[in-house]
From TrEMBL:
Mg(2+) binds at D73, D92. GO terms for molecular function: magnesium ion binding; thiamine-phosphate diphosphorylase activity. The lineage of its organism: Bacteria, Bacillati, Bacillota, Clostridia, Eubacteriales. Binds 1 Mg(2+) ion per subunit. This is Thiamine-phosphate synthase.
Length: 214
C-alpha cells in the first residue's frame, strides 16, 4: 500500500483515555465519518492478546471505509494481522529493520525531531515523517518540542511527506501554514471532544486551509 500524501491530511491516533463507556472502535468510526484520513492504533498498556483483538476490529473498520491503518510501535502485531503499516519512534526499531520484517508494500512512518533524524529515516526507507511536538502537549510525557522553523527545515530537507504532531487543535492548526507539512496527527483534538464526528470535520476543514498551496 503506497502512502499517498492526501491520506496524511488528518491522521488520527487512538487513545483509550476518553472512552467513557464507548468502544474504541465506535470512536474511530465517528472520526472516520468526520473525515479522518488515516488511523494509527496506539496502545501503550494493553497486553498482546487484547491489543491483537482490538487491532483486528479496527483494521476491519478501516478496510470498510478504505482508510489506511497502521499500528504504533508493535511491528509483530502489524505483521501478524497484515496491517497497512507501522509507525515507530526514535527509540523503537529503525525503519530499515521494520521494512525487512514487513516488506516493501507496507507504510512505515517514523517520528523525527531534527533534520538529521529526518534524513536518516528517509535513507532507511520511511514513507512519511511525524514531526513534533509542534505545540505543548498533554498526551505524551516525553515529547520534545520542535520549533516551527525546525519543522519547515525538515520539510525542505526531505522528499517524503511530513505531518506535524503534538498539541495540535482547531485553535492553533492554522499557525502551521506555510511550513510545508501535508497534514497533522492528533489525539485529543479528536478523541477528547464531546462530538467526535463534528470535531473531526471542523479540524479537517482547517487543516485543508493550512496545507493549501504549501
Amino acid at each position: 500500500m503506497n502512502c499517498d500524501k492526501k491520506d496524511l491530511l488528518l491522521y488520527a491516533v487512538t487513545d483509550r483515555a476518553w472512552l467513557n463507556g464507548e468502544t474504541l472502535c465506535s470512536q474511530v468510526e465517528k472520526a472516520i465519518k468526520g473525515g479522518a484520513t488515516f488511523i494509527q492504533l496506539r496502545e501503550k498498556n494493553l497486553d498482546q492478546k487484547h491489543f491483537l483483538e482490538e487491532a483486528l476490529e479496527i483494521q476491519k473498520l478501516c478496510k470498510k471505509y478504505n482508510v489506511p491503518f497502521v499500528i504504533n510501535d508493535n511491528v509483530e502485531i502489524a505483521k501478524e494481522i497484515d496491517a497497512d503499516g507501522v509507525h515507530v519512534g526514535q527509540s523503537d526499531m529503525e525503519a530499515g529493520n521494520v521494512r525487512k520484517i514487513l516488506g516493501d508494500d507496507k507504510i512505515i512512518g517514523v517520528s523525527a525531531q531534527t533534520v538529521e533524524q529526518a534524513l536518516l529515516a528517509q535513507k532507511h526507507g520511511a514513507d512519511y515523517l511525524g514531526v513534533g511536538a509542534v505545540f505543548k502537549t498533554g498526551s505524551k510525557d516525553d515529547a520534545d518540542d520542535v520549533s516551527h522553523d525546525e519543522l519547515q527545515k525538515i520539510c525542505e530537507a526531505v522528499d517524503i511527506p511530513v505531518i506535524a504532531i503534538g498539541g495540535i487543535s482547531s485553535k492553533n492548526v492554522t499557525e502551521l501554514k506555510g511550513r510545508g507539512i501535508v497534514g497533522i496527527a492528533v489525539i485529543s483534538a479528536i478523541f477528547a471532544q464531546p462530538d467526535i464526528t463534528k470535531a473531526t470535520a471542523e479540524l479537517k476543514a482547517l487543516t485543508e486551509k493550512t496545507v493549501a498551496n504549501d
